[in-house]
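Model it.
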Amino acid sequence: MTIVHTEGIFTHKISWCSCPGSDPIDWHLSLLREQLFPASMSKPKTAFTFDVLNHFLVDALECKTSAMSFYQKLKRFTNNAFPDRVPVEYRELMRVSWLWRDLKHRKWFGFGHDTELDPGEGGLALFCPGCPQPGINLPPDWKARQYVIDGNFTAQHMKMNKPEMDVSLSDGKGYMVSEIPYQSHLQQSLDNRERSTCSNHRAINAANINKSNLRSTGIGATACAQHGCFVPHSVVDFQKGER
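Modeled.
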């Protein structure tokens, strides 16, 4: 079995439990008890330590490290002279780290040990902890709350060659809105082309440019006006300029 750790990528011989009553279908549970995350649930041949998954999570968050760069670093730790001889488990790292982040989020918000309870819309996101919230630190009849809405019109996202492979594990559970209702709303909305009297109005001119190769042309969010914290289930992808 290939084991990916913070110090490198290694191959070890694994002796599975052969006690009476043991079942190969539970092999992945044996790995999890040893703090090894299997790359597959059925007859796993690759596993990642919890430490290396936590390291990748922090590196991606603070250092903006891509999965490929992180794996190349692990290959250098394993064999600095001949890194090409190290087993390639890049796709497995992408898939496992994706599952790891989703499981961590569910655990942090109290859904890790209850398979029957599913988080609702925005259930895996925190609202501004410093703001008054009705039912928590304000009377239920309190209505005043200030928001700001802004967007980033350069955060473009190109269309995928195989969009069916982009499967969401927590659609609408965090800060992004649910995909299907949002797309239904866009189909019902009118697309009005703005006209500018200014000779060089960049915002409107950019919105009217044909961008058929893009899945989204930017991103917009609602945030707390006082502290700038994003509101759960309020972040959307722009489809055309500010639309």
